[in-house]
Amino acid sequence: MADFHYFSSILITYSLSFLLGGLIGLERQIHQRIAGLRTNILVVLATTSFVNLCLRLGSTTDAIRVIAAVVSGTGFLGAGVIMKDGMNVRGLNTAATIWCSAAVGTCVGIGQYAVALLLTVFVIAGNTLLRPLVKWVNHWPISNSESDATYTITVTTDQPHASIVENKILEKLKSINFQVNGVQLTGNDNKKYEITIRLGRNITDSKDLNILIQDIASWEAVQHVAWNSDL
């Protein structure tokens, strides 16, 4: 009977870990992040197992040591999903989510089920409800005194269309809330004109620039277009 009671309590603990880890991981999987459904479930289950077994076989002091080891060990795991993509660093939020998953597992492992559930709700809310707010804030215009130009768009066209293309680009940038820090128009002996536009730092994803470049490249009289970063 004692063995059955022990097994049933472990089953409930692991089932709850699986469920809470699945809820956190599902949100990551839906948004196609590096660490998704399976990773977060395994992190929660592992931390639950470490802490729970330590409490059952050891002492509170031993459990505290295990929790400290879980915190540092999960930090190394999270570091593995952080990648540098050009000027952007990706995976920071996913790494933080893995760390939160470890915290959820720790709460379940010490029997704080309500706290674990509450933490899961807040983690999911932070990853979903705050997403539109972050995008909105990131597109706030930054004053020239506070910002150094980070990105530069260079467009090559001919003399008759130079002003038209320039105005069209500026209108396009304004419509997508890209801050313009400067515009320069230069010509050469081949009657080609180069339009150089320096952008501010309110660009959060290089994919937005790639989409913009593809759009400009399809315009009439645009011979070449590219972007680069000066950092």
Task: List the defining traits of the structure above.
about 230 residues, Alpha-Beta Plaits, rod-shaped, two-stranded antiparallel ribbon, alpha+beta, 4-stranded antiparallel β-sheet
Describe it:
The chain is rod-shaped. The chain has 8 helices and 6 strands, in the order H-H-H-E-E-H-H-H-E-H-E-E-H-E. Helix 1 (2-30) packs antiparallel against helix 4 and helix 4 (92-109) runs antiparallel to helix 5 (113-128). The model is unreliable at 144-149 (pLDDT under 50). The chain has 231 residues and is an alpha+beta fold. The protein has helices at 2-30, 37-57, 60-79, 92-109, 113-128, 130-138, 162-175, 206-217; strands at residues 83-85, 88-90, 151-158, 180-187, 192-199, 224-229. The strands form 2 sheets. It has a 4-stranded antiparallel β-sheet with strand order 4-5-3-6, covered by helices on one side. It has a two-stranded antiparallel ribbon with strand order 1-2. The N and C termini lie far apart (67 Å). Helices cover 60% and strands 16% of the residues. It has 2 domains: 2-138, no CATH class; 151-229, Alpha-Beta Plaits. Its main location: membrane. Residues 16-135 form the MgtC/SapB/SrpB/YhiD N-terminal domain. InterPro entries: MgtC/SapB/SrpB/YhiD_fam (IPR003416), MgtC_SapB_SrpB_YhiD_N (IPR049177). The chain crosses the membrane at residues 6-26, 38-58, 64-83, 95-125. It is a multi-pass membrane protein.
